[in-house]
Amino acid sequence: MKSTALLWLTLIVLATEVAVAQSKPEEVIFPSDGRQLHGFLWKPEGAGPFRAIVWNHGSEKLPGSQPTLANFYNAHSYVFFVPHRRGQGRSPGDYIQDQVALAPAGGRDRRMVELQQAEVDDVIAALTYLKSLPFVDSARIVISGCSYGGIQTLLAGERDLGVRALVPFAPGAMSWEKNQVLQDRLLRAVDLSKAPVLLIQAENDYSLGPIRVLSKEANKKHKEFQSKVYPAFGSGPQDGHWGFCSSATQVWGTDVLAFLDTQMKAR
């Protein structure tokens, strides 16, 4: 009897996993700064209203729809939205890395930060679109992202957007050691943050400067700020950077969900 019950339980779990794996996103279009930007919207089963996450992709030219992350968050009743910022993925505009490369060598650090600041408008436009959806609980939205997307998460967090939390992964870790302008700008973003922050990195990321320096600044300014360095993930810094952000939900997922649950319950 016990073995039969266990078999049925296993089959139910497998069926659930298959159903989640077969879910598909909706491609949507939303306006930002005169452009029609594209994004991928993943919705859990049911009518909602659901909690939601705006996920900020990194510097990759083709960010895709992030199915691994989407399936993880959908399984925990979060709408998951992947907006493509200007010039990346399916959104029109000039690719940010090409624009940085066109700047004089001595001005590329500052140019990168200027472009990051301009693209915050795209994140806010994505948030505005998400809030307009009837199945989204507009009072329970989180902004998260990795690498360049971690930068975007912190910069957007300076604005009074009414989001419940910010979860940046590895913000600027690939650029950190050689870009003092970026370091200064993210220190300011921490000082001005309007929502609780959970900053996450893996030990084998390109640089742990972001988590060390920004955590120290947040502590000095008495901000609502948590951080955690996880053990090395994969076999090198790219695994510890993008691979950790985008696929290691079994490593950081429980901690992130617990943090978000706390913030969702907060007034």
Layout: helices, strands, pairs:
Blueprint: H1 2-21, E1 26-32, E2 35-42, E3 50-56, H2 67-75, E4 78-83, H3 96-102, H4 108-131, E5 136-146, H5 148-156, E6 165-169, H6 180-192, E7 197-202, H7 209-220, E8 225-230, H8 237-247, H9 249-265
Parallel strand pairs: 3-4, 3-5, 5-6, 6-7, 7-8
Antiparallel strand pairs: 1-2, 2-4
Quickly list its features:
267 residues; alpha/beta; eight-stranded mixed β-sheet; 9 helices; 46% helix; globular; disordered N terminus
Question: Could you explain the architecture of this structure?
Answer:
By secondary structure, this protein is of the alpha/beta class. Helix content is 46%, strand content 21%. It is built from 9 helices and 8 strands. It has helices at 2-21, 67-75, 96-102, 108-131, 148-156, 180-192, 209-220, 237-247, 249-265, and strands at 26-32, 35-42, 50-56, 78-83, 136-146, 165-169, 197-202, 225-230. An 8-stranded mixed beta sheet has the order 1-2-4-3-5-6-7-8, sandwiched between helices. Strand 1 and strand 2 form a beta hairpin. Helix 6 (180-192) runs parallel beside helix 7. It is globular. It starts with a helix and ends with a helix.
Question: In summary, what is this structure?
Answer:
The protein is an alpha/beta fold. It is 46% helix and 21% strand.
Query: Could you give the count of β-strands?
Result: 8
- The strands making up the biggest β-sheet line up spatially as 1-2-4-3-5-6-7-8
Cα-atom radius of gyration:
19 Å
What is the helix fraction of residues, given as a range? Answer: 40-55%
Largest sheet: 8 strands, mixed
| Uncertain residue segments | 1-22
Helix tally?
9
Mean residue pLDDT: 92
The proportion of strand residues reads: 15-25%
Protein structure class? alpha/beta
Succession of helices and strands = HEEEHEHHEHEHEHEHH
Shape: globular
